[in-house]
């Protein structure tokens, strides 16, 4: 079954006329549950715009996005905000951890924001941190841990509420090649073993090699699409 339907979307910034810029043009694709899709393309081709529209952060100008059967265009701001915090997980290049919170508190954030009961938060954070190999640093603060550990903390936080779809924008961008490879192994394991659906924007060929499908964007359109020979495999 499809986790994501992107149907003929266009995104124009600015008002129509001389200032208008169309970053995405009539773009469509479907993502099945459990896929690991990489979005590649030159700078300015529209990758971040595409990810932001799917992330419900930016409305499309035309077309429709359906996530897990729900159309984003049918929701108001408040419903979108709830949908985002319940159905989506986010990983960013710069981790976006809160410096004055411990690793535990950072991971727990999506649950505490929803008033989850404390014992349940504790158990879920333990489980996510064990999965990511960071259960030993839960009391530390972001300033006290490595870049790789920060990104693993960010992934644990992105997954702790069991999102239907994990969205990642250049997740290895701030990591050295060793930590980048560890991160991609981790995402790949989560995809294969926990069946997490991952949509990732990347410039990095190494990161792209872990995807089951690659969409190449050029001038706001899908220019080329590559499938790993077997959908269970990576490139
Ligand atoms: P990429 O992520 O592939 O580098 P972006 O989606 O960031 O591409 O940008 C695509 C195009 O849209 C670029 O030309 C960019 O300058 C333009 N753009 C992106 N965001 C905005 C915005 N908020 N207002 C106007 N133009 C924008
Ligand atoms: P990336 O790391 O993907 O290259 P950018 O640096 O292109 O991201 O964009 C960073 C932010 O600035 C994004 O939120 C994007 O929407 C916004 N942005 C990009 N280009 C423009 C533009 N021409 N006008 C206004 N905002 C822009």
TrEMBL record:
SUPFAM superfamilies: P-loop containing nucleoside triphosphate hydrolases. GO terms for molecular function: ATP binding; ATP hydrolysis activity; transmembrane transporter activity. GO terms for cellular component: membrane protein complex. Residues 4-235 form the ABC transporter domain. Pfam families: ABC_tran. It comes from the Bacteria. Keywords: ATP-binding, Nucleotide-binding, Transport. Belongs to the ABC transporter superfamily. This is ABC transporter ATP-binding protein YxdL. It comes from Planococcus massiliensis.
